[in-house]
Amino acid sequence: LVLLNATHRLDRAVLRRKDDAFVKPPLVADLKKARSRGEIFLVYQPQVNLADEEVVGVEALVRWSHPIRGLVSPNEFIPLAEAHGLINSLGSWVLEEACRQAASWDEDVLKGVAISVNVSPLQLAAPGFADMVQQIEHKTGLATERLILEITESSMVRDNERGFRLLDELRRRGVHIAIDDFGTGYSSLSYLRDLPSDYLKIDRSFVRDVPGKPEAEAIARAVVAVGKSLGYQIVAEGIETRQQADFLQSIWCDKGQGYLYAHPMRAGELADWARKRTRRVAETSPQHMEV
Ligand code: C2E
Ligand code: MG
Ligand code: MG
Ligand code: MG
């Protein structure tokens, strides 16, 4: 019996050792303290008009620099924040920080451009979300029409009625809405027709395979054609090569974002990037040439 018991205990120990939560201390405890410890920050990725590469917007992306694990991906800690009731406070902080930054941009190429902020479906579901957005705009001085809230397609499908009403309300107040990761969810054409929204962002998984893969090309073409005829502006995410950009422009996709143009950068780097770009624009633009 003693022997049996011992093996049993050993088994359990082995099992627990295999369990991630045993090897690494639970991340959520650290996440709770991360904000107050200054480990959470934002990076910003420019968006351009595909036709002339003019900067038209910037997307804010949240980062967590964990003291031991290093950078933890938002794909990992956003779901964790959602599961443990931390997403509303994290999300409001992100929104306020992004709006404050955007309101302060005064480099020529950034002045007045749109700021896109990713929003979790749980934030949308929280009572008073639209009022919270408005308060942050007042507090930071950001002009309402500069704000774009990015919402994933799949999150909207879950609670159509309520979600639609909220997006409607936000848009009546002047906020713009983008449907993120478009093409990866299950939305129908009637949903696309009725969705109170301004932008469709074609998911990176389709952009990755154009040009060259006929299926990806067909999907990109279809999203642009249907989206534009329903009044959306189309943004392609994850553009890494000139060929991708050229293809997307040739099918009349409006905007693009990706490593080809710029990686996400911290606020200070973004300002440097913008200053360099302002100089470049000034040097090459015909209006500024001496006659
Ligand atoms: P997303 O909103 O679709 O953001 C685009 C992701 O693609 C970002 O990853 C960005 O860094 C990455 N990316 C941009 N250009 C390229 C490229 O050319 N090639 C490749 N391979 N990747 C590119 P990131 O920052 O890791 O964010 C992942 C996701 O986490 C986001 O996807 C978004 O869904 C979520 N997320 C990020 N920040 C926030 C936030 O503040 N709140 C919420 N709720 N979700 C966020
Ligand atoms: Mg996004
Ligand atoms: Mg996206
Ligand atoms: Mg994506």
Task: Briefly say what this structure is.
The protein is of the alpha/beta class and 291 residues long. The chain is built from 14 helices and nine strands.
Describe the SSE topology.
Elements lengths: L1 H17 L1 H4 L3 H8 L5 E10 L5 E12 L3 E3 L1 H10 L3 H18 L9 E5 L2 H5 L3 H12 L6 E6 H6 L1 H13 L3 E7 L6 H6 L4 E4 L1 H4 L6 H16 L3 E5 L4 H9 L4 E3 L9 H18 L7
Parallel strand pairs: 2-4, 4-5, 5-6, 6-7, 7-8, 8-9
Antiparallel strand pairs: 1-2, 1-9, 2-3
Helix pairs in contact: 5-7
Bound molecules: ligand C2E and magnesium ion (3 copies).
Please, what is the average pLDDT? 90
Instruction: Give the spatial strand order of the biggest sheet.
Output: 1-2-4-5-6-7-8-9
Terminal Cα span: 99 Å
Strand-residue proportion: 15-25%
Helical proportion? 40-55%
What does this structure look like?
The protein has 291 residues and is α/β, with parallel strands linked by helices. It has helices at residues 2-18, 20-23, 27-34, 74-83, 87-104, 121-125, 129-140, 153-158, 160-172, 189-194, 204-207, 214-229, 242-250, 267-284; strands at 40-49, 55-66, 70-72, 114-118, 147-152, 176-182, 199-202, 233-237, 255-257. Helix 13 links the parallel strand 8 (233-237) and strand 9. It has an eight-stranded mixed beta barrel with strand order 1-2-4-5-6-7-8-9, surrounded by four helices. Ligand C2E binds at residues 45, 61-62, 73-75, 78, 94, 118-120, 150, 180-181, 237-240, 257-259, 264. Residues 24-278 form the EAL domain. This is EAL domain-containing protein. It comes from Oryzicola mucosus.
